[in-house]
Amino acid sequence: MDAFDNAVADNNKKESVVALFLGIIDTLDHYENFSEEPEYWNQLLEEEIVFQSELLTQLQSKVQLNTSIYEDRYKMVEFPDLEA
Domain count of the chain? Predict the structure, then answer.
């Protein structure tokens, strides 16, 4: 939940961005370790690490990011344990 809190926090603070990124990695890692499809989650985790690296490069160059970037990225991924 901390990652989601940081997702809506003041993202001008690098601590919020770092916490968000770590929270996403932790969530994907959890699913990789405890799901019946670890290969699927491992692939998403590997893609996420590359994606975050690219985002950090963009942030360093002061590019304005689309605020729905993660919503768009994961809208088709089901997180069964997180659904209400």
Answer: 1
Residues whose CB is less than 8 angstroms from the CB of residue 48 and which lie 6 or more positions away in sequence, other chains included: 24, 25, 28
> How much is the CA Rg of the chain, to the nearest whole Å?
13
Ranges of H-type helices in 1-84: 2-7, 14-34, 38-60, 69-74
* Global confidence as pTM: 0.75
Domain enclosing residue 31, as ranges: 2-82
- Per-residue pLDDT of 27-71, as tens digits, reads 899 999 999 999 999 999 999 999 999 988 888 888 777 778 888
d(CA 51, CA 43): 12
